[in-house]
Amino acid sequence: MQLDSLFSEAVAFAGPPPTVPDRRVLHEAVAERLRALIVEGVLAPGAHLNERVLCEQLGVSRTPLREAFRTLAGEGIVELQPNRGAVVAALSRQDVEHAFELMAALESLAGGLAAERATAAERNELRALHFEMLAAHARRDLPAYYRLNSSIHRRLVDCARNPVLADTYARLNARLQALRFRSNLNRDKWDAAVAEHAAMIDALDAGDGERLAAVLRGHLDHKRATVLAQLDAGAPPPPAVRGADGGRPEDFR
Known about the structure:
Low-confidence stretches: 1-16, 237-253
Order of helices and strands: HHHHEEHHHHHH
Strand content: under 5%
C-alpha cells in the first residue's frame, strides 16, 4: 500500500478534522487524533509520520503538526529522530515487561487508596461508566469500549487523591495504551477483562481497598502476560478496528 493511501485511510478512520477556533488548541486536537490512531493500531510502532501527507489529510499547516509531534514525544509515544523526523515509538520486550510490572504496582496502590477516599458521587460515576463500557462490549465496539475503559482506570487513580501517583501513572500509561488496547483483540481475553472490571467496581462500592488492590494487580498481570505472548508470537500490528457504525472484524482472535 502506498504511503499516501495508508495515511488517507488512517485519517478517514479517525473521523473529520476537528473545528477549533484557537490556534493554541489546534495542536492539542491534532495530537489527540494522532494519539488515537497510534493507540488503536492504525499507526504501528516504527511507522514514519510523514508531515506532508498528514498536513494534507488533517487540513493543518506544519506548525501545529510539529507542535503535536513534540507533545507526543513528551509522552513517549513518538520519537523525534535526526534526519528522519517523527516516528511512532516502539518498546522492546524487556521494556514492556518492566513497564507493566510497575503499572501493576501503581494501579494496585491507587485502588487501595481510592477505596478509602472516593466519594459517593465518584463511586456512582464510575459505576455509570462501567455500564457504558458493558454496552460497548456487548456490541463489540472496541474503540468505544477502550475509551471508557481508560476513563475508568484514570478516574480510579484520581480518586486516590495523590498527585504524584497520578502524574507517574499518566506518564507510564501513555506508553502502554496501544499495547493495552491490543490485548483485547482476543475475544476470550477481552471477556475476562470485563469480568475483572466488574470485580473492581464491586470492591470499590464495598470500600474494600485490599480486595480492589488485588483485583487491579491481577488485571495488570493478565494484561502483561497477554501482551508478552503476542510479542513472543510475533503478532503483526492489529488492523484498524472500527466501531459499531463503521464495521468491525467478526473475530478478534
